[in-house]
Amino acid sequence: MRAFITGVAGPALTEAERAFLKEADPWGLIVFARNIADGETLRRLIDEIRTTLGRQAPVLIDQEGGRVQRLKPPLCPLYPPGAIYGALYDQDRDKGLRAAKLGARLIAADLVQFGIDVDCAPLADVPVAGADQVIGDRAYGRDPATVAAIASAIAQGLGEGGILPVLKHIPGHGRAAADSHERLPVVNATRATLDATDFAAFRPLAGLPLAMTAHVVFAAIDPVAPATSSATIVRDVIRNSIGFRGLLMSDDVSMGALSGSLAERTKAAISAGCDLVLHCNGKMPEMLAVAQEAPILAGEAARRAEVALDARKPANVIDVAEVRAEFAQLLAGLWMPAPRETHVRRIS
Fold first, then answer.
1. Residue 50 falls within a domain, yes or no?
2. pTM
3. pLDDT over 70, % of the chain
């Protein structure tokens, strides 16, 4: 298989996409709202993708809660933004961690019914005053220890529900003054400051199986290349200083922060030390360009991929209704979904 993750254009595979998947053999797929017509269609799409690839390929989604939640009512309930867990944590540490873990466990219960087995969460980004709001209330707090503790609880909840977590956006997007979907952020903080704040939040999470890079330039370390395509940051910060040893994927290489062709972006990310390249938008010309430059997954990258997939475990058994009731009780007074979206039809 090749060292990339791809999206597809809609809720059903086209003949061109089917042929592409057979030929390019990506490591995994990522789904977005455009792929979700209804529950049965989504399950059928995921089953067809895996049948086409001939293996139980990982299927990813961004399902954080708050602004970043691809699956929504009526397919599953709404979940709070990460800042709500941080607010509860500030009131009562144990309740904050419990709520974060339960919310993640419930998200896992939603995802597994459709065949999704990887969630691009938790975040360990630590925002600062004046930063762009692309992270904003997605973050769990502004203290690295708080962020790490809540992120760990979320990873645990996902894992217990049979879902692999993806730690993001390593080594930190919280300080960025621009949205990397649109343009390249440059962070001018000193290395000492970064070590004590941004990077510090990721260190306790270094044992997680997967992580996603940040399209952010850290000028004190590499004044030119963003973390995704900086061999210095991947080697010296992500692998050595933070100590992450798991499977490292880029953030979406079609984002506006990166420059050059899709082929050049793919080559740069792999050359820097990313194990996998993520491409999300489902545009076939771009998919072909990424696939052409993505190498066969081999060596240490293949080993890390195998270890990551081996971390997929069957979900533990829970009473979903009971857990939802406890979750709602913990968050009472802090957050509740919009009234029109509280009655959710579950798709069996």
1. no
2. 0.95
3. 97
